[in-house]
């Protein structure tokens, strides 16, 4: 888990109207229309040859269309006032939308470096090797029992061994025991003075070991915050345009500097989601063929800042323990009603592993679908629509291996891009996967396959045999949080509309998860970015009748190394949670 604020913030959810109204360029647009019509009339009056008339009229109309499409799209800003990169993106927010956005941004707020404390050298920054973890003694002086809470205190020091005097370090923690294949995520509380308390619920009997990992120093987080707000262009995208034998590739993004040429505006008419490409010379905006990740900008931080992102030095490094960090957990103490004397902290823990199996703590009756026959039985007569990034595609691929009579259809699409579809005719099972709309860092997605999840949900009828699974987070890590909040709000409203017309539809939302941060990956895919987005996602869907699959805690608690694409055992646990929810009302369950 990430850090927790000591005071609870009100969590309201975003409701956004979907509009895409062009605020400027209107007069220019109508002026072009008038001039072009006069020119067209004049042209028709002076052309006698029918074939010449067709060619010249077509040319005029083609030029007219290109001019209209390339008019820059200027609107009031949606990005937070601290984000100055794109001042023309998005539609005006209503007062209620602006208030909810602000509250979500407050929820995601992170401690900043105290004024005047910016380090001059690496030696003044947090060093995991010089920091310490110590377990807090049991309050009653006896042993620790199942149902109680274990606390650890983290003392952060710099590279010279001096205690840190301010907080803001990003830590992850887990309690685990490999022989039992047991694990649970810890909860980190930042005291703002270089000290952190980590709390673990004790949920199994036997041995357990506490582990705290320093993901980023507070100084590194300050750099990541600046990149998120000021450099959303550090991942760039491209599109191929083609007409006949002539083709050209131009840069695309959610916003582009307008002083580098005219723009093609691909803002979605229904959701209002902005997307632009530079207009290729000699080609119309309607000749776009595909969308692809262009690459990553390099040298976006200084050499001094780069020292804060050294794998194995100050990125994802375990903090050593002052003394033993292994304990033996005794059987639970029963209270009068026979239940565990559980600390309220446990309620913030979504589940834990024991004997390799995930046990949720949110009241869901968990079943482990170890046999293909059990998966087939659960999904018989069901349509499973999956939307999102490659972490959702993993679910599609896993289900293919667990449904022996499923047949995947070739839709002339790339295996890693989709859309994907598979059918089990014998049991009337339909699986579908489609990636979410831009920004998405896939390779060569056909322009016609760029669909927004909210629009796709509006096209579903839903019902008792319909399942919707959504995962959308990783591809937003390089953008200001406001863009992601807007996307979530649109999906939330579409989910509400779906549940209003078909309340028995099963909707499942997958959360973000930590990943490997080798090399300069932190600058684009840091766990700090993912954790922040995850807070917004959880708050957005918290009060809806949907299931949140806690991929974050499932990955933090597991012994496998972090990976943006979790290994098969974790994917199985995620899908088992989904199937347990989907088939919770089945009489045989």
List the helices and strands and how they pair.
Blueprint: H1 26-45, H2 50-69, H3 95-108, E1 132-135, E2 144-145, E3 149-155, E4 170-177, E5 182-185, E6 187-190, E7 195-201, E8 206-216, H4 218-230, E9 235-243, E10 246-253, E11 263-265, E12 276-278, E13 290-296, H5 303-306, E14 317-318, E15 326-330, E16 351-354, E17 357-360, H6 372-379, E18 383-388, H7 390-402, E19 407-409, E20 420-424, E21 429-435, E22 445-446, H8 453-458, E23 466-471, H9 481-501, E24 506-510, H10 522-525, H11 527-541, E25 547-549, H12 551-556, H13 568-582
Helix pairs in contact: 1-2, 3-11, 7-13, 9-11
List keywords for this structure.
single chain; 589 residues; alpha+beta; Immunoglobulin-like; Rossmann fold; seven-stranded mixed β-sheet; six-stranded mixed β-sheet; 25 strands; disordered N terminus
Q: Identify the strand order in the major beta sheet.
A: 19-20-21-18-23-24-25
Please name the CATH architecture of the domain at 365-582: 3-Layer(aba) Sandwich
What is the fold-level CATH name, i.e. the topology of the domain at 365-582? Rossmann fold
Supply the helix-strand structural class: alpha+beta
- What is the strand content? 15-25%
Weakly predicted, low-confidence segments: 1-85
- Cα separation of the termini: 32 Å
- Kindly provide the radius of gyration, computed on alpha-carbon positions and rounded to a whole number of angstroms: 27 Å
Largest beta sheet, briefly? Answer: 7 strands, mixed
Calculate the mean pLDDT score and round it: 84
**CATH homologous superfamily annotation of the domain at 365-582:** SGNH hydrolase
